[in-house]
Amino acid sequence: MPETKIVLPDRDIPKQWYNIMADMPNLPKPPLHPGTKQPAGPDDLSAIFPMALIEQEVSTERWIDIPEEVLDIYSLWRPSPLYRAHRLEKAIGTPAKIYYKYEGVSPAGSHKPNTSVPQAYYNKQAGMKRIATETGAGQWGSALALAGKLFGIDITVYMVKVSYSQKPYRRISMETWGATVHPSPSILTNAGKKILEGDPDSPGSLGIAISEAVEDAATHNDTNYSLGSVLNHVLLHQTVIGLESKKQFELAGDYPDIVIGCCGGGSNLGGVSFPFLQDKINGKELRVIAVEPISCPTLTKGEFRYDFGDTVGLTPLLMMYTLGHDFVPPGIHAGGLRYHADAPLICQLYHDKLIEAVSYGQTSVFEAAVTFAKSEGIIPAPETAHAIKGAIDEALKAKEEAKEKTIFFNLSGHGYLDLTAYEAYLSGKLQNYAYPEEKIKEALKRLPVI
């Protein structure tokens, strides 16, 4: 019987996170203060982040120790299994070997607890009573709600309004773990009120929800802000995925030719790919592919320049591929990929051509998801289904070229709370939304001039 899954013992949970900034040929440009437009220092961030995370944000140390308390909680689901997708390979008739790392085994059902747990830990160490955050599809909000409960911190979540309606079970999950959840834009913050004044029917966006959460944190002394993607320390925490994967590939006697991850803010892609990119930077032949939706084509259609991380302009300016901070994408079901920009680390690596990017419409993505579910048995989240689509396309190319390639993707979460999206696809109601070029150009005209 061929080996299907490679499982590591608890003792092989990584004891350190990998910091790719130690090896990048070019570091991202520094964040800028939203008011002065000068480089932002630790004091500018200390109002909403604990100093331990600020230090990780700017560190260029290659390895950063994982606290014992965090490792103890990681052991609830880590190490996660690496699967060889024998049945998917057979279903599409490819000579390629396809592997996937399954992060849906976490209590919250996605990769997000890899960073929510350490973020909650460091905030608890700093004496915080509450954390405010945003969430798109609800995976991040669920993960932080769980982490907050584990460390005794109250969690307030501003959930993008269209996802609040589309994904009630994610909201219920957050509330079950004790979080308070508000649809965003809301009337609870000045940022939310400003958006609603201009568009009372706004479906919301991650940029808007970030504005609300940052304002909430900045106006309460006992509250910090927490972000589920984009920032350096978030991607750092996620590298446990790739580090475990490298050990598992050693056990399998294999190594990927291609590493694939869906990309909205960048935490999933960074987590699975950065430990492998260390090898690429050092001369290893390897392709890394970011997969994004055509409705929010940040890397494939955005501009590489400074922009705000939120809609209202409360966050520092970051050097990113961006569609414009007031860009509001259509309400596709892959809510976690509906962000106007990407992590500065991902953007710099893409700019330096160490990462590739492709975009797909959601109907072809769900077609790939159903193919995967029928062969491998797991119903994937709409976000990670983009990575599956990318992996299947690469496997079909290998078939056309009659080449044996090893393709690896991160299955970053299950879709059992996203079944309304599958219902829409199976009933033929799902539509593609390619964002009009003129709308992108319009949003880009309003970018800050630095």
Number of DSSP strand runs: 15
Q: Taking all residues together, what is the mean pLDDT?
A: 93
Strand content: 15-25%
Would you tell me the structural class of the helices and strands? alpha/beta
Number of H/I helices: 19
Unreliable stretches (pLDDT < 50, length at least 5) are: none
| Share of helix, binned | 40-55%
- Form type: globular
CATH architecture classification of the domain at 5-9 and 67-109 and 233-444? 3-Layer(aba) Sandwich
CATH class of the domain at 5-9 and 67-109 and 233-444: Alpha Beta
Could you tell me the CATH topology label of the domain at 5-9 and 67-109 and 233-444. Answer: Rossmann fold
First-to-last CA distance: 60 Å
Strand order of the largest sheet: 1-4-5-15-10-11-14
| Main β-sheet description | 7 strands, mixed
Question: From the alpha-carbon coordinates, what is the Rg to the nearest angstrom?
Answer: 20 Å
